[in-house]
Every structure is written in C-alpha cells, then in structure tokens.
Amino acid sequence: MLISIATYTRKISSLESSIPGISKNFRFFLKKSLNYSDLNIILENEMNISEAEVNKIEDFISLSRNKTPIEYILNDSEFYGRSFYVDSRVLIPRDETELIVDLVKEYSASNNPKIADLGTGSGCIGISLAIEIAGSSVTGIDNSLEALEVAKKNKNLHKTSNFELRRSNWLEGIKDKHFDFIVSNPPYISSSDEHLKDLMHEPKKALISSENGYSDFKKISTQAYKKLKKGGILIFEHGYNQANKVNEIMQSNYFNQIKNFKDYQGHPRITIGIK
Ligand SMILES: C[S@@+](CC[C@H](N)C(=O)[O-])C[C@H]1O[C@@H](n2cnc3c(N)ncnc32)[C@H](O)[C@@H]1O
C-alpha cells in the first residue's frame, strides 16, 4: 500500500478539530525532524515514504494526541532569535521572557556586567545575555540537576564561555557578591491554579511556588539584596496579575525605584527594583 506525505496530510487534517494546531506542527515536524524542505513537500507529496519515516510520523501523532508540546517533540525552542534544546526536564521558553533580556541590555551601562540568572532552566535567559552583552559574565543557577544538564547542552551549542553553571538553592550556595544584575523567572503558579492542567508536560518544580505563588519571590528578594552591588538591579518575571504583590515584596526588601513593564499583550509582566 502506498503511504505518502499526502496520506498523512489528510489524516492529520481530520485530527485538527480534536488536536488544534496539529497541521501546522506537522509541517514544522516534516522540516525539522525529517528534513523536508517546502519544495520536497510539494514534489514528493504523493511518493511512497520509508518505514522509518512512517514510524516517526506515527510517533508524532501519538505524542500530539497526548498534548505533548511541539517544542518537546522537536527538542527545539526559539528564544531571542536563537535555537535552544529543550525536553521535559525544563520549562519551554516563553516569548514574554525575552523582555528580561531587553531590559538588562537597556540598563547595562557599565562595561563587563556581572549577572546571575536564577532558575536558569534551559539557560535561555543567561545564554542570551552572555551572547548579547559583550564583556558580561553570567552565572546560571538552578537547583535541578536535570535542568542543569539541559543548560549545559545549550551552553555547548552556543559556545558561551562567559556563561557558567552552578547548582544552588537560589543564592544560598553562591559566594560571589556585587552582581550588577540578578534576573529570575522563578516558579510562580499557585498549586491550586487551574491553568496547571494545560501545563502537564512541563516540570512542576519549574512552575509551582508555595504561599499562593509568592514564596520564591520572597526568598529571592531577600537573598538578592545581599548579593547585588549598590545600584545593582533585580529583575523578575511574574504572573500577569502578580505585579502589585511582587512590588510590595521588593519594597519590603528595601529595593528602590520599583517599576513594572508590560508584555506584548499589555499585562504587567516584569518588575525591576534597584538596590
Ligand atoms: C519558570 S522556570 C524558568 C526557566 C528559564 N529561566 C526560563 O525562563 O525559561 C524556573 C526554574 O527555577 C528552578 N528552580 C525552582 N526552585 C529553585 C530553587 N529553590 N533554586 C534554584 N532554582 C530553582 C526550576 O528548576 C526551573 O528551572
């Protein structure tokens, strides 16, 4: 029996109503995983495909049925214009997190800034900063060994010698002081949040924080104040409805000139404060 890309394109269109987005993801999958170009897809549309390709496409379909995000299927996610390896050991980088990189670039007047990226996960923020800011030295910190393995893979992929990795419970095990910037996209979802059911493939320890989602903002704010140099800046990403409370937490930890920044959808998403 002839099994072609066209056979699967038809099958996948019929799945679109139960798995929204699967047709678009299938085109990504053909390009990234099976190395088809747009031209191949057109020219070879009705040609028989190999058994190995059939198996890979069947795997793609069953992972998609199971709502596995396309980034985990392809082991690839884009952040700040670069490709990062991802798997279920780390959070998939989000578009709004790129604002952290923009802000550090904007505020880094000093040469050779020293930066800590707390909860580095895939390393997407820290590695982007290390590449974008000449002379910077960036420490990516995570307490998850699994996440650190992924970040190491990305460090090697991008050959970032000015990005180092450390395992620590936030800044507890970090002796360095006088950071110019401490940035963090920490876990900030309450364990009772109904959105968690849509994030079932991502690591819970990257998502959930106690005290209604605020526990890690409190710990990091207290620790960061001690590790920043005078005039150093703490930058947090937080939930769309958490800006006021994060602002209060930073105030009670003596940060000054606290400001919120909106994401592309107009939600206050990033809060910064100066020591
Ligand atoms: C929301 S994810 C952010 C990942 C990545 N920075 C990003 O923006 O895509 C939070 C990260 O914090 C790490 N984490 C959670 N608790 C931690 C702790 N106590 N100390 C250090 N890292 C922690 C998790 O392992 C996870 O990688």
Descriptive tags:
seven-stranded mixed sheet, 275 residues, 39% helix, alpha/beta, 11 helices, elongated, 2 domains, Rossmann fold, two-stranded antiparallel ribbon, binds S-adenosylmethionine
Give the SSE layout.
Layout: H1 5-15, H2 22-32, H3 38-43, H4 51-65, H5 70-74, E1 77-79, E2 82-84, H6 98-107, E3 114-118, H7 124-132, E4 137-142, H8 145-158, E5 163-167, E6 179-184, H9 204-207, H10 215-227, E7 228-237, H11 243-252, E8 256-262, E9 268-274
Parallel strand pairs: 3-4, 3-6, 4-5, 6-7
Antiparallel strand pairs: 1-2, 7-9, 8-9
Helix pairs in contact: 6-7
The chain binds S-adenosylmethionine.
The site of S-adenosylmethionine has 22 residues, from helix 7, strand 4 and helix 9.
Helix share, percent: 25-40%
Please name the CATH architecture of the largest domain.
3-Layer(aba) Sandwich
The number of distinct structural domains comes to 2
Number of strands: 9
Strand content: 15-25%
The order of strands across the largest sheet is: 5-4-3-6-7-9-8
| First-last Cα distance | 69 Å
Regions with pLDDT < 50 over 5+ consecutive residues?
A: none
Oligomer state of the chains in this structure: single chain
CATH class of the largest domain: Alpha Beta
Bound molecules: S-adenosylmethionine
Judged by helices, strands and strand pairing, the structural class is alpha/beta
Order of SSEs, N→C? HHHHHEEHEHEHEEHHEHEE
Determine Rg (CA atoms, Å): 21 Å
At CATH level 3, the topology of the largest domain is Rossmann fold
> What integer is the average pLDDT?
95
Summarize the structure in words.
It is a single chain. The chain is of the alpha/beta class and 275 residues long. The chain folds into 2 domains: 5-66; 77-274, Rossmann fold (3-Layer(aba) Sandwich). The protein has helices at 5-15, 22-32, 38-43, 51-65, 70-74, 98-107, 124-132, 145-158, 204-207, 215-227, 243-252; strands spanning 77-79, 82-84, 114-118, 137-142, 163-167, 179-184, 228-237, 256-262, 268-274. It has a 7-stranded mixed β-sheet with strand order 5-4-3-6-7-9-8, sandwiched between helices. Strands 1-2 form a two-stranded antiparallel ribbon. A hairpin with a 5-residue loop joins strand 8 and strand 9 (268-274). The longest helix is centred in the first third of the chain and has 15 residues, at 51-65. The radius of gyration is 21 Å and the shape is elongated. The termini are far apart. The mean pLDDT is 95. Residues 90-91, 93, 97, 119-122, 124-125, 141-144, 147, 169-170, 185-187, 205-206 line the site of S-adenosylmethionine.
